Amino acid sequence: MPAQTLVAGALARLGRAALTFARSIAVRLGLKPEAVRSRALAAGLLTVGTALSVSLLAALGPALAPHTVEAHPMEIAVAAPDLSSEIGAVSRLGTYTPKHYEISSSDTIFSLFAKLGIHDDQARDYIFTQQRLTPFLAPQPGQHVTAGVSNAGQLEYMRLYLDGAREDNSRTIEVSRIGRELISNVLPFTFSTMETLVSGDAVGNLDATARELHIPESVTDQLRAVWVGADDPVEHLTAGSSLRLVYEKKYADGRFVRNGQLLAAQIVDASGVHEAFWFSDGRGAGSFYTLDGRSASQTFLRVPLDFKDVSSEFAPLRRHPVTGVLRPHNGTDFRAPSGSRILAAADGRVTRVAYEARGYGHYVQIDHGLNRTTLYAHMRRVAKGIRPGVIVKKGDEIGYVGMTGLATGPHLHYELQIDGVQINPATADLPDTENLSAYQLAQLRASAQPLIERFERAALDEGRPSPQALMAKQAQKSAAERDEEADQAANAAGRVRLRPVKIDDLTDSSTQEVGRASIVRTGGHS
Q1: Where is 487: in which H helix or E strand?
Q2: How confident is the model at residue 493 (pLDDT cuts 50, 70, 90)?
Q3: For 337, which DSSP code?
Q4: For 309-441, where are the E strands, in sequence order?
Q5: What's the fold here for domain 195-289?
Q6: In this protein, which residues make up the domain named M23ase beta-sheet core (predicted)?
Q7: Any residues with CB less than 8 A from the CB of 208 and at least 6 apart, and which?
């Protein structure tokens, strides 16, 4: 029995005993029964109320005290719906094969779809209606395409990667499917670029060497154009020469796309070290230059003079100012003060130095290779050292303006011949790239230095002589040869030539020190 029930029973018995005791006292005192009953009732109610309160508190005590309620999970079996058809539809929607393709010269949108395995008339028609997707209709050779194609030939997406004039102008043209709809986008894109070094020995001409060294065809084509002109080491490449290249490889979305720009080339042969480095003007145009800022390829001066004043244009028919006879004037006449310097228009080899009393007077003819020749006539005299077989560089002094031959005044008559045909030098399609400015030259040298170091390491790893050491010896030899030629010319003229010397070398009694130069007596009259 609970404790609260025992307490309540005890209190009830106590109340009845109190009521009986009150009645007995009342009889002894002579009180009325009603008065005794009411007073006893009040006392009993008080006692019973107290007992009930205690009993209630005892009963509610456990409920009011903190306690923990344990929850018991219930498992209810529910039948899952059949979603196999929905899952199959989603799976079919996301199943496609990624494909990659490089555009060839004959490709159209139709051949592109066929080669990628796309059989989707909706996608083809959509491309024709969207102006921003026009590049898909006329793709260019070398462009890269990626596509996602379902097993049924449905197009999920297709991207065409386009090169910009600058690296940050590249973009992708994209058509993609969302559900049953097609959308198009043009998004900016930058190719990832990796520089690749090729180094080895030539086994013959360029074609054979390219196959041996696994040089890509697009890079080989660029190499052919580096030294276009009279002195082209690529054209004269033979077994035993060393060839080193650095070129770019382009990647899109982590996948190789194509080979990019040739950055540097070095050929070491019996004649010395030939180097050229790519330099871009930042607007997409560029060319190859040597480390002294000169164009590596042959370029032409359209006006090979210090002074230029055109006095007679190139013309198919002109009345000669001396003879009065109508005849073609296959050249351009430049008025200039007598004695003005005449410059070689481009690199080449002197083929003729002659005199015609009834024609050109003193003139020089230069062969620039590639069936290009130039002629300079009516010279006052030819510059010293200019004779048949001599190699000249663009801008070298070859003679001086005069009026020898049939001429009415001092001027230069300049002719350009390509493939045996007289061409107007002012309008001919000639490579005329200018030399780099001092600022551009500094940029070129800074960008070329890491490439030079790679060439140097490659040569040493192959057990080859240092290209830089060979170039230093080559420069010293050229300087010595120039000094020797100058000494010979001065000796023939009986003149005294000044040249710099080291003070430590002043031991010859025939050498008289003057500052940091010396007077070398070369013979003739003193």
Answers
A1: helix 467-493
A2: low
A3: -
A4: 310-312, 315-319, 326-329, 332-335, 341-343, 348-356, 361-367, 372-382, 391-392, 397-401, 411-418, 421-423
A5: Nuclear Transport Factor 2; Chain: A, (3.10.450)
A6: 328-425
A7: none
Mean pLDDT, range 172-180, rounded to an integer:
93
For the residues 47-51, what does the mean pLDDT come to? 53
Residue 250 vs residues 66, 167, 265: alpha-carbon distances, Å: 74, 11, 19
What pLDDT, on the 0 to 100 scale, is given for residue 487? Answer: 66
Q: What stretch of H or E contains 305?
A: none
Q: What is the Cα–Cα distance from 23 to 62, expressed in whole angstroms? A: 40
Same fold? 91-188, 310-423: no
Q: What is the pLDDT of residue 504?
A: 47
Q: How many residues does the chain have?
A: 526
Query: Tokens standing for 422?
Result: 């007289």
- Kindly report the CA angle at 311 between 308 and 314, in degrees rounded to 5? 100
Q: Extract long-range pairs of 14-20: CB within 8 Å, 24+ residues apart.
A: 14/47, 15/43, 15/44, 15/47, 15/48, 15/51, 16/44, 18/43, 18/44, 18/47, 19/43, 19/44
Q: Which of 245, 143, 250 is nearest to 194 (CA)?
A: 250
Q: Find, among 159, 177, 113, 186, the residue nearest to 252 by Cα.
A: 159
Beta partners for residue 497, in sequence order: 520
**pTM score:** 0.57
Question: pLDDT by residue (tens digit) across 295-354?
Answer: 888 778 888 887 654 454 434 444 445 445 445 556 788 888 899 999 999 888 999 999
In the CATH hierarchy, which top-level class contains the domain 310-423? Answer: mainly beta
DSSP 83-122: -HHHHHHHHHHT--EEEEEE--TT--HHHHHHHHT---HH
- Tell which CATH architecture fits domain 91-188: Roll (3.10)
Domain ranges for the chain, please list them.
Answer: 3-61, 91-188, 195-289, 310-423
Residue/partner pairs of 276-283 with CB below 8 Å, 24 or more apart: 276/226, 276/227, 277/444, 277/447, 277/448, 277/451, 279/436, 279/440, 279/443, 279/444, 279/447, 282/166, 283/165, 283/166
Residue type, 321: P
DSSP state of 159: E
**Are 18 and 47 a contacting pair, CB within 8 Å?**
yes
